Amino acid sequence: MSRLLKLGALAGLVGGVVLALFLRLVGEGPIGDAVRLEASRRAAGTAHDEMFSRATQQVGGMIGAAVYGVCAGAVLAVVFALLRHRLAARDDWRRAVTVAALAFVTVSLVPFVKYPANPPAVGDPDTIGRRTALYLVMIAWSVVATWAGWRMTQWLRARGAADHTRLPATVGVWAAVVALGFIVLPGSPDAIDAPATLVWRFRLASIGGEAVFWGLTGCVLGWLLLRSSRPTPSQRALEDIAPPRR
Fold first, then answer.
1. Which of 69, 87, 122, 235 fits a 20 to 30 Å CA distance from 34?
2. What confidence tens digit (pLDDT) does each residue in 212-238 have?
3. In a domain? residue 242
4. What angle do CA 71, 74, 80 make, to 5 degrees?
């Protein structure tokens, strides 16, 4: 398990570094526009100096993305270990990519659809606690939906259900739980008062970064698993000279 955790952390580090570069190259444009818009809205006697310069914030954000990648990669490795022998994929690369895709849908895509990310120019600072709590509740709800869909497919598989029956039932259960969460949970407490183009540029950069991170982390983890499972030249040499088992 410790070896798998190390591989997951390494894969997550690679994904986190690429995520940092993606956000720097793709996401910095709308963030900078939002920061300038926010500054222009301040009244003339209420402007104040930022605690950290924009350059410091950018470096800190990139470091934070790398740390996030390591932590998320380790969690991905734990989930992979739990599901490894229950997935029908032919090898560990496909299993790792499948688990990473499920992680993207569960912890990134579904919460994003309900509570999409907003740039700095949008949102009341007094509601940040409520917004964060709602987002975390949506993540937990999405995890429950994925678990319910998983349990459904396992239950149907144990009863010999065919793929054309099992897949629609699984998706139906998952979609029903997600839809219930969308209906029960309240919407965002903040009104959108920034230009729509700016808001959606920022949102697409945010979800695009998550897609890049999870896709790359899953691929790297699968590659590392395949590479570590191959025998070394010395091991192959020992197998060649070892006497045949009776």
1. 69
2. 999 999 999 999 998 887 655 554 554
3. no
4. 140
Q: Which two tokens stand for residue 151?
A: 């349990």
Same domain, 110 and 209: yes
Q: How many domains does the chain have?
A: 2
Are both 4 and 117 inside the same structural domain?
yes
Q: How confident is the model at residue 48 (pLDDT cuts 50, 70, 90)?
A: low
Q: What residues make up the domain containing 171?
A: 123-191
Domain-located, residue 9 = yes
Residue 9 near residue 74 (C-beta atoms within 8 A): yes
Q: Is 61 in the same domain as 181? A: no
Give CA 207 to chain center in angstroms. Answer: 9
The beta-strand segments (E) located in the chain are none
- Closest by CA position to 157, among listed 88, 110, 74: 88
Cα 104 from Cα 51, distance rounded (Å): 33
What is the enclosing helix (H) or strand (E) of 228? Answer: helix 196-229
Say whether both 18 and 127 belong to one domain.
no
37 is written with which tokens?
Answer: 């818009």
Please provide the average confidence, as pLDDT, over all residues in the chain.
Answer: 85
Alpha-carbon distance of 109 to 116, in angstroms, equals 9
